[in-house]
Design goal:
This protein has about 280 residues and is α+β, with helices and mostly antiparallel strands. About 15% of the residues lie in helices and about 35% in strands.
């Protein structure tokens, strides 16, 4: 279901989930990169079948926080996400969610960052753990002038909120193929599709594919994405974007879905390959 209100094109991916961020400088000085903290509320329109923030939204916040943490560690160069692996331990959240990102390896060509998420409203119950790998690139014309220690306040609520499927321009449908239109608010500073938008597409596509395959959705709420592994192979620059899914099997209420994402407008090249676990909730 979508809202009758048009999407606010001034709201970008990093603001949609209202992620607050703050730098935690290292005691080791410049030799050791900073960690980062984050906090995000769970607005009602962003909750999924599991009761809490949809896994695609959770991955968007992980990509945003982990990417910025990795980018500051790579200065004067910058980064692009190459893989995101997340284990989701809890789908029902009270909120707000609190995030922590720590660089575990900073090499010449890549940065590896570990992330954890807890639910502040549920006595810091663990929600997810993730590992993110980023490639270090020449920033070209990007302006990388940040006041340190860096902090960014929580964005205000949207005046006319829309569901994630609408904000991320995911077309209605069912079955093993799900399509996303590449709108300007979904592009990152490089001008390519934000990694969080890819994650949201993978979430929605995997759930639709599992449902079409006959996954047990007899629970009170239906199906929800949980654990996810995404390998970002190439940037998405043209669109539209298609997620093509293959259900690998179902066991004990867990359906494993392989997700191959293609940039249809760029000679249909594969841009992301991964897997998503879909649960009956």
């Amino acid at each position: 279901m979508t809202s009758d209100h048009p999407v606010d094109r001034r709201t970008h991916v990093s603001d949609y989930f209202r992620l607050e961020r703050w730098e935690l400088p290292s005691d080791g000085g410049d030799e050791r990169p900073s960690s980062f903290g984050g906090r995000a509320p769970i607005d009602d329109h962003q909750r999924g079948a599991g009761g809490g923030l949809r896994t695609g939204g959770l991955l968007t916040n992980l990509d945003t926080l982990g990417g910025f943490t990795s980018g500051l560690a790579a200065l004067p160069r910058w980064i692009v996400t190459t893989s995101l692996l997340a284990t989701v331990s809890e789908l029902d959240h009270v909120g707000p969610l609190r995030f922590r990102a720590d660089v575990v390896r900073r090499g010449r060509s890549s940065v590896v960052t570990a992330l954890d998420v807890v639910d502040e409203g549920a006595a810091d119950r663990h929600v997810a753990a993730a590992t993110m790998t980023c490639a270090i690139l020449d920033p070209r014309a990007m302006v990388l002038d940040f006041a340190r220690p860096f902090s960014l306040a929580m964005p205000p609520p949207q005046a006319d909120p829309v569901r994630p499927e609408e904000f991320f321009c995911i077309e209605p449908g069912a079955g093993p193929v799900t399509r996303l239109r590449l709108a300007d608010q979904l592009r990152n500073p490089w001008g390519i599709l934000h990694g969080g938008a890819v994650a949201m597409l993978a979430d929605e596509a995997a759930c639709r594919a599992a449902a079409a395959h006959g996954a047990d959705a007899s629970g009170p709420n239906g199906l929800a994405a949980a654990d996810a592994v995404l390998h970002y192979l190439r940037p998405v620059k043209v669109g539209p974007v298609e997620a093509r899914c293959q259900v690998l099997g179902t066991r004990a209420g867990r359906t494993s879905v392989r997700v191959a994402i293609h940039d249809v407008g760029a000679e249909d090249r594969m841009v992301t390959l991964g897997s998503v676990t879909v649960l009956a909730v």
